[in-house]
Amino acid sequence: xxxxxxxxxxxxxxxxxxxxxxxxxxxxxxxxxxxxxxxxxxxxxxxxxxxxxxxxxxxxxxxxxxxxxxxxxxxxxxxxxxxxxxxxxxxxxxxxxxxxxxxxxxxxxxxxxxxxxxxxxxxxxxxxxxxxxxxxxxxxxxxxxxxxxxxxxxxxxxxxxxxxxxxxxxxxxxxxxxxxxxxxxxxxxxxxxxxxxxxxxxxxxxxxxxxxxxxxxxxxxxxxxxxxxxxxxxxxxxxxxxxxxxxxxxxxxxxxxxxxxxxxxxxxxxxxxxxxxxxxxxxxxxxxxxxxxxxxxxxxxxxxxxxxxxxxxxxxxxxxxxxxxxxxxxxxxxxxxxxxxxxxxxxxxxxxxxxxxxxxxxxxxxxxxxxxxxxxxxxxxxxxxxxxxxxxxxxxxxxxxxxxxxxxxxxxxxxxxxxxxxxxxxxxxxxxxxxx
Length: 436
What we know:
Layout: E1 4-9, H1 13-24, H2 26-33, E2 37-43, E3 59-61, H3 65-68, E4 75-78, H4 85-95, E5 99-102, H5 105-122, E6 126-127, H6 138-145, E7 151-157, H7 160-172, H8 176-185, H9 194-197, H10 200-214, E8 224-225, H11 233-241, E9 244-254, E10 259-269, E11 281-288, E12 292-299, H12 303-319, E13 351-361, H13 366-376, E14 381-388, E15 393-400, E16 403-404, H14 405-416, E17 426-430
Parallel strand pairs: 1-2, 1-4, 2-3, 4-5, 5-6, 8-10, 10-17
Antiparallel strand pairs: 7-9, 7-11, 9-10, 11-12, 13-15, 13-16, 13-17, 14-15
């Protein structure tokens, strides 16, 4: 049987890694797929640039349309990033009857509904395992491995840059700005780190995971997103003293009112496995009603870890090239006509616990006023820590039980208005992530 010809859009880090994995493991991949797979064409901005892979036998071009329109190519692999040109090329490839594999989380999160609809009409597949958590096969795990479960919630450390920064702040007592500068020197963070440190990258990935978990359309614009740039070493230390670790978490939970979609700094008990995922590594914790909590851990980026997911998708596509499109695994796990219209909860309606840090004058009645405000807003205290300072100032740390966010917002506004409170209350959400 003739080998399947693949065309790459982008021959950078992940593209080069994909070529290397396909070439190095060609025999093993062929045994798994049932036929050979070769990269016959690839586009790049500069075809003369040095590569991390051998390009012998690959027809190179600087025009990506040469790849998506070539009649010999069965699978187009999109690795150029962004959501403008990539969208045009992917839709063009689908219109030409080609299957698509992509590592582009922004493309899927923002335009996946349109792309999957086009693919369904053309009877082709769009595979996107590499779009979330690099080499961790989390999409396949939720979509196929946990297909017998009703997913209750999922929580993920799905951005390595943010995780590296918070790990360094905790372990080496460094401030955010100095660790960010190091992350940029090491190549973990871009010159403009906004997508990573403000949670946009994680929000793209959470959008995809939530759609697969709960059978809802992709709704990136409804994700509540909060970054880590305001996290201080002080908060990291206090959290640790109370038995918690701060992680930049993407969390989605099904409730009676709808689906939570949120990315923000989160206190997690140190005893949880996911709290001990450090450096640039990623992990996703998924709770199913039948299986209970399951944890998926691994490299969230890098040439070959991401290429591992890309090649896995290529193999899946090759396996079903001749199958009836109606019998393939649905793009978002559920049949397109069975997607749910569950609403996405606004952040004001979310229920969670909280860490509060309050800087106040060390005088009689201040703590009583604060606890009264919390009680009046239906917020109960789980634990409390008070640090007195020589300058007649005190830092009060409060861990609350679960409450509705809008109640907490009202309480914080009243606490901030107290004359004895010196600075705005620092609020970080807290999740226990247990099996209950």
